[in-house]
Amino acid sequence: MGRTGQEFIRFVIIGGINTVTYYVLYLLLHSSLEMEYMFSHIVAFFISMVISFFLNSYITFKVKPTLVKFLTFPLTQLFNFAVSSFFMFVLIEYFHVSSTITPIFAVIIAVPMTFLVTGKVLKKESVAG
């Protein structure tokens, strides 16, 4: 298996950890604390994104995290966030799917695209280091 294949496997494993982290936070905020589903989604997504940055830097792509990469990393998650938010909204509001399970459906959609974008950002050498 090539380097990209190994990275993708690590990315999927880290993604699994990240998804569980996100989902536990989402359920805690939405179900336990009875916060609105989209607010819960945004807060849980942000926290899990920070964790994802460090796990993907150190484990998936084996690069040193830098401030420039940390500030650029959210751009890699923009597609993921937009797609998951859109699908959550549509599934909940139009198809009346339970707001406790829609994040699971939404997260499956963006994994390959997010992997490619994340790899490009984290592997990019920057002048500021």
Automatic annotation (TrEMBL):
It comes from Domibacillus epiphyticus. Residues 10-118 form the GtrA/DPMS transmembrane domain. Belongs to the GtrA family. It holds the Pfam family GtrA_DPMS_TM. The lineage of its organism: Bacteria, Bacillati, Bacillota, Bacilli, Bacillales. It is found in: Membrane. This is Polysaccharide biosynthesis protein GtrA. Keywords: Membrane, Transmembrane, Transmembrane helix. The chain crosses the membrane at residues 7-26, 38-59, 71-92, 104-122.
